[in-house]
Amino acid sequence: MPAIIEIDRLSKAYGSGTKALDDVTLSIDEGEIIALLGPNGAGKTTLISIICGLVTPTDGTVRVGGHDIRTDWRAARRLIGLVPQEIALEPFEKVINCVRFTRGLYGMPPDEAYVERILRALALWDKRDAATRELSGGMKRRVLIAKALSHEPKVLFLDEPTAGVDVALRREMWQVVGDLRREGVTIILTTHYLEEAEEMADRIGVIAKGNLLLVRPTSELMGEFGKKTLVVHLDRPLDRVPEDLAGRGLVLSDDGRSLSYDYDTRAERTGIARLLGDLAARGVTVRDVSTRQSSLEDVFLSLVSEEAA
Predict the structure, then answer these.
(1) Domain 227-293, CATH class in plain words
(2) Scanning 190, 213, 268, 283, which has the fewest C-beta atoms within 10 Å of its C-beta?
(3) pLDDT at position 68, please?
(4) Intervals of the chain under pLDDT 70
């Protein structure tokens, strides 16, 4: 797939000396979903704002669909839809008119069939004649998505799109994201729901203190930084880890009925067979074993902690 967004050595510094972005380079392919993760103040929103033409960079270049965001900003901006964190809607305007108006701002001709399709996909059709002030927070966020899609963009930015949205609405929104991806729309999202990023994104980018720490395919990131934990469920509780096994990194649960053991699935030898054999030799009866995979949240916190160290 060709790159639809090309970011080269992008930086943003403010007069106060604060550096919001520091030499960020990133290429995003057409049709992919990429999630940007980072703590508050990491630079995620600044990066999105620069690409969307809302903030002027200090250094570097950005091209969207081959158009430079500064020298050919009109063509670049026409390719982009943005769903911001903040909910800003005309309180007395009808939902359907909000979408129609935004479409017109981009010079797109009226297309009632397309507007209806968007509203139906976002479960807003029944609310099309309601004033936006009458909607719940979750429904207002849906209107923002509808407005962002109104001009049929090729790239969609979702800045914390499910913040304040209940579980049912969140699931429906991600179904819409999946549909857009199948239609070839490139999606860049920031989220604090890390399980969603793990499930939805093709690649994960981690940002901290204005630096893009890494960008990896999601499965590769989990394989490289993730780990598995073996949980050994015991037939009888232990008071402590056997002394001669204390150096294995075993962690005894509070109730003494299970031992946890972290291991690397990529290692030639995980040590599991030896561990179970040693437990049996010491008269520790194993009732059951299970494993759990570290989550993207564990990976994210580990990476950010390393950067802060």
Answers:
(1) alpha beta
(2) 268
(3) 95
(4) 1, 163-165, 226, 265-268, 296, 306-309
Collapsing DSSP to helix, strand or coil, 50 comes out as: helix
For residues 275 and 284, the answer to whether their CB atoms sit within 8 Å is no
Confidence (pLDDT) at 165 = 67
Beta strands in the chain (DSSP E): 3-13, 19-29, 33-37, 59-64, 67-68, 80-83, 155-159, 186-190, 203-208, 211-217, 228-234, 251-252, 258-263, 286-293
What count of residues does the chain have?
A: 309
How many alpha carbons fall within 13 Å on the CB side of residue 265? 14
User: Which residue in the block uniquely carries the two structure tokens 């720490």?
Assistant: 213
**pLDDT value of position 111:** 96
Single-letter residue type at 261: Y
Radius of gyration of the chain (CA): 24
Q: Please tell me the predicted confidence (pLDDT) of residue 55.
A: 93
